[in-house]
Write a structure and sequence with these properties.
The structure holds three protein chains of three kinds.
Chain A: H1 2-18, H2 26-36, H3 55-69, H4 74-85, H5 100-138, H6 145-157
Chain B: H1 2-20, H2 38-65, H3 71-102
Chain C: H1 2-29, H2 32-38, H3 41-61, H4 68-73, H5 80-86, H6 91-113, H7 121-141, H8 166-181, H9 183-195, H10 201-232, H11 242-267, H12 271-294, H13 309-329, H14 331-334, H15 346-377, H16 386-406, H17 417-441, H18 447-481, H19 485-495, H20 497-521, E1 524-530, E2 535-538, E3 541-552, E4 557-568, E5 571-576, E6 579-583, E7 590-592, E8 594-597, E9 601-610, E10 616-624, H21 626-644, H22 648-664
Helix pairs in contact in C: 1-2, 1-3, 1-7, 3-6, 6-7, 6-8, 7-9, 8-10, 9-10, 9-12, 10-11, 10-21, 11-12, 11-15, 12-13, 15-16, 16-18, 17-18, 18-19, 18-20, 19-20, 20-21
Classes of the chains: A mainly alpha, B mainly alpha, C alpha+beta.
Amino acid sequence: MKTLKVLMVLFVLVWISIVQVPDAGAGALLQDLENQLMCKCDDKCGKVLINCTCATSDKTRAKFSKMLESGLTVEQIVKMQVDEYGETVLSAPTKFGFNLTAWMTPFVALVAGGFGVRKVLQAWVGKKGECYSIETPAATSEISEKYSKRLKDELDGIEL
Amino acid sequence: MGFIHFLELILIVAILLVIGIPLFGKLKLKKLVEPVDPAIDEFKHLLVRKEETLISIKELEFDFNTEKISEPDYKELLHRLETEATGILEHLDQLEQESKKGKPHKSH
Amino acid sequence: MNDIGEFTLLVALATAIYGCIAYVMSARGNRIDLYLSADKTPFIVWACITISSICLWRAFLTDDFSLQYVWAYSNRELDTFYKVSSFWGGQKGSLLFWTLLLSTYMLVVYFQNRSKNLRVVPYAMAVMLVIVVFFLFLINFSTNPFERIPLPPEDGRGLNPLLQNYWMVIHPPTLYLGYVGFTVPFAFAVAALISKDLDDGWIRMTRKWTLISWFFLCMGNLFGASWAYVELGWGGYWAWDPVENAAFMPLLIATAFLHSVMIQEKKDMMKVWNMSLILLTFAMTIFGTFITRSGLIQSVHTFDEATLGYYFLAFLFVIIAACAALIIARLPLLKSANELDSFLSRESSFLFNNLLLLGIAFATFWGTIFPIISEAVRGVKITVGPPFYNQVNVPIGLALLALIGIGPVIAWRRATFSNLKKNFLKPVLAGLVAAIALFPVIPLGNRAEIYTYITFVLCVFVLVSILTEFYKVTVSRMGLHEESVVGALATATWRNKRRYGGYIVHIGMVLIFAGIAGSQAYGTHTEKHLQLGESFEIRGYTITYEKLVAVEATSIKTRIIAQLAVERDGKRYWTGHPEKEFYKGQNQPVSEVDVLSTWKEDLYMILADFREDESATIKVYVNPMVSWIWTGGWIIAFGTMISMWPDRLEQRRRLDRVRKQEQLFPSPAQE
């Protein structure tokens, strides 16, 4: 049942990271733009447009609203902005070329780390396995009388 | 201005006195720490291990009582932990005896 | 007074340098005279830095504008409250404040451990003094807060209005207490490495310190989020700003450390790993300072005169190189019999917890430095903003959330699979019920909404899993001791503070996850230009613009306040007063938002603009579940308190150990 759940979660995760459900409505389109672009004010506030409250950001928003009304698509506006200001205007790296490493590296590292943890676990559990096979016959061996009593006393002394 | 300079001077003298006095006392020949005796370190280490192992046994019992672990697994792990704990106890006794033999004047 | 402040800083530097050398020499040469001499220095350094800080505070409170720093960050009209906090408002003062906290921590450590372990403590003190020396060096020779202006101006420039908020008074000290606190476990770890006393003694000695620092760092982050929420006026609380990341990364690594030390304590293994984690945590705190003070990366947090970055970078490299060299040199001593009983054990779940926490930390680090990498490789400057962090960190975060629920159910050492299945049944069923119940009511239109749906389901799963643990222990105590439900629950928690305190912290985390998910996906906002008396609707609230008032608050501050009536189901429900504050000498006005906060949602109002004819632009956000985040924060605080609370039984066991050891190996009388 657990594997099933894990598979389900995995499936859903993969599905949503691939599928981009387009939003409807002009407000949503503007929001989409605001999320994708940085504010370009003179103070260099360094904020993504949707988070910015400076005067420039208000003007930019008004400009974008007009552009959207005039029939331009989000992609077109983004492209115009990139042409005007360069790639810094994008709030996240593009998903092609060298910038792909920005997106890939964390996951590559995570997967590599995952394999690392697996290997480490295998090694550590394996060690026990070896002792274990030797130890099993010893399981019947009795702990000496004296120490088993001591152990019991000591255990009673520990309160948890 | 003069007063402040005077204060600063007093401060410096006081600090020099405080950190300087121990250097000119009769302590020079005394040692800060005794040379490391591996037996002490091991004893200390084993005391901690013993405690942790005992706590582990208690926690194992708790895990068993809250049904996180089956009876066969519980018994096997318990046995292993008990063996570990008695091993530590034996080792501790051994160290104790050695130290009593080695330094009779220090035992009580 | 300013002369004294400046002078004591120099004295502190000289004493600290002497202290480092004397401590190290006393330990190396085994000389008690040097040790006793060195042992006076922590107090002297602390006293000097405290005197100097008092001098700076005095300058602020008495409007002594002959100091450049006071002139730059204060003025006569400033509230006394903010004059006190202006101390850390700029770069120079914040460095002094940092040093003050560090030396105070050092003093506490000094009193705590003076005669405890003379093999390790001198080195630990020396390490802390080295760090103090670094900061004092910067303060004395690069950013002296006592720098004079030859002809003192009449009035100061004033504190940045954004910083004039009560969260801003609490947030930096809390964060600094966390940042600085990690110096203590770091110093003891390094001392253990140098003195070859590589037992888990250093972990036991500094466990409380790690928890306290973790607590402050966590609270510091949350207070920062609160400040951003009420002060920056964009309706959100976290923007993945480089400096936020800088405070977030050490928190993640420290969390990993807090979990993995448990394995070392229990099984005496993973020594190298824990050592590396604490060194990394400390390195991250210095990296954070580097980012704030380098001006390399744009951020709301960077100080005006950010020129110190390269000192910190150099210091960072020295630390990392020295620590790496030390660990490598001590590798043979750090070897431990690493073995686990089973794949299916709490230990292995902790390894995955470490993996995920470090994964998020790495992704965040990567995003923070990627602009620099891109510029170096392609020569193109790019931005890595919130969309990147959200897309990368949210899936990892969800896996981590799931692990919070899985962890408590798995037994230490070896869990039995059949029992595990049985124990998972209830939480998984609860999760499935939640999934089915939420499916028809929750919109699943875009990625954020789907993530939120998954988060909610996972939250239910985790919550049920943790609560089941509390339920089980309560029932088992009630069976054994005939106690009431509350009594049994309280005693059980009190008996094992670390475990149940930890679980309470996890409950707080669940609330934070839920709050973030809810507010990210289901929020809405609108902006309306209104004439007096006009109204509009948002999410069932009817908001009417009633009036606009101008108030001369002080001679330098004018407040323009809008009054907005909020109606719900035809009844007046609340009156909001968002405002804009104009400060003399500042170009941009500051928005003061007004928030109606309920457990369900926040109604968040901003006065965006107004005109001569009293018409105004009002921006309203409806942010669902934001209060869950703050509630989660308080629950985390409560849980941490419980797990930090001194444990009588544990103390008794420790004293028992010491007694036994003394019986057998009487230590020579210490001078």
